[in-house]
């Protein structure tokens, strides 16, 4: 079976461009959502004091 090298390059280039476009879209969406998340503290974070959160991370890291 013959595989056309130019066709393979075109397909690879198109797939790469699609992946880059999707990554850029995800980045833009994340930038738009990030300020909203910073303004509203989550209920889970409010339920635990900051010191307990630090201690839990320290214990789990060991």
From TrEMBL:
Give the residue ranges for region: Disordered: 32-62
Compositional bias (Basic and acidic residues) at which positions? Answer: 32-41
Q: Where is the composition biased (Basic residues)?
A: 47-56
Q: Which domain of life is it from?
A: Bacteria
**Official protein name in the record:** Uncharacterized protein
Q: Which organism is it from?
A: Microbacterium bovistercoris
Instruction: Recall the taxonomic lineage recorded for the source organism.
Output: Bacteria, Bacillati, Actinomycetota, Actinomycetes, Micrococcales
